[in-house]
Records
---
Amino acid sequence: MTLSTCCETETAATDAGGIPARLTGGVRAGYRRLARWNRLRHERHQLGELSDDLLRDIGLTRREALREARRPFWDVTGGRR
């Protein structure tokens, strides 16, 4: 087996979430957590960039959107502060 064959096999062996199949247990859970944190960071940044008209359409004020956008990516509780 060559290095390129090995890499192609590993790339193809992923689950529905794109996680390499060879990862298991805690490593797999950690990978999912990092992926979720990255999505949250991106979504919160986008929320902070929305116009007042778009915020009104989704039922948020500028103040609420900025408060959510400032939350750290690891804060996934969903509770309001």
---
Amino acid sequence: MSRSPQNSRNQRARAEKDRARLYSARVQWNKKVELRRQRDTIIASVCGSVVVLAAIVSQFFVAQA
């Protein structure tokens, strides 16, 4: 049973379309991951700065007491 050239072409086109869809999904997912990491880094930096600033301010008030 041999395949017709048309059927083979359709299968290749379907496989290429599927690969393109998967590639697009992977690129989109990686962009979301990158944005989430940036957001998490900014939040951690702000929280860390607040903790350090609170420690400095509390030391200032303790030293005056």
---
Amino acid sequence: MTAAADRSPSPLTLLTSAPAPGTVRITVVGDLEYDTVEDLLLEVADCLARHPHLGHLRLDLAELAMCDSMGLSALLQIRRFTGGVGARLHLDHRPPALDRLLDLTGTLDHLLAPPSEADRPAPGRTGALDVPD
């Protein structure tokens, strides 16, 4: 086994604040991986429900320890959630390993793109946030 395989994931801690009207910041501390992504998705869904006129969702990732493919999938889901309500996603203080992952997958520009009409739910669709149970 490798050292990475022996390493148990660090717990994910989420600290949420509203530093300005129309803005919510979620500070992400720990690993964003299979066992922890649901916590972040639920927190984002809760923020979007509590702040219906949200303009900016800022994820502060300075203390993100690791992000695997499930973490990347969660970030893409969060972009879909925020775009669907017309809010812009910001990935603040990205660690170098996350920048490498986003560069290799070609997803950074998509994640940081401003919301557009194409992000809005189609007529007749609720735009509900689908968060796994």
---
Amino acid sequence: MKTLSENSIRYDGAEVKLSGSRNVGELKLGSEGQLNQNINLWSNVAQRIVDRG
């Protein structure tokens, strides 16, 4: 994901900028299984990498 523009607003000469990350990468790994007709299991792991540039 990449944000190309900065979010800001100017009101009566005051400017407010939304600070956050411009470049974000996320990796998700998961598994899912069914033990029987009534029981389903799932799990996942996620890692987010952020560049504040």
